[in-house]
Design goal:
- The protein is an alpha/beta fold.
- It has a single domain, classed as Rossmann fold (3-Layer(aba) Sandwich), CATH 3.40.50.2300.
- The chain is 48% helix and 22% strand.
- It is built from 5 helices and 5 strands.
- Helix 1 links the parallel strand 1 and strand 2.
- Helix 3 packs parallel to helix 4.
- The longest helix is centred in the N-terminal third of the chain and has 15 residues.
Amino acid sequence: MTEAAILCVDDETVILETLQEQISRHFGEQFVYEAAESAEEALEIIEELDEEGVKIVVIVSDWLMPGMRGDEFLVQVYQQFSDIKTIMLTGQADEYAIERAKKEANLYSCIYKPWREEELIKIITAALESV
């Protein structure tokens, strides 16, 4: 059986730890949980998991990160892996970036910081059900 993974991407360690803790508390052992502190690191993880036969089902990505912004990252992901559900987490994304991600990366949802755990889990659950 192919393993399934959820990838969280944020340049703030505390945000990554909180996301992973909340998501893994709800979904338990159903998924492998990965974290990246930049879009570049996330792209490497995606490639490694793909080579190992692990299917990423959801990516939760920050928008404002050094190097590559979240909308650019999600567009790149969509070009290679169009079946991954993507969720942008942001406190600062402009409407243009959100619209771009919706059009060019098939963005599933946008969550604004600070988020509520219930909202995060509800959106991820809905994204998983829409696969």
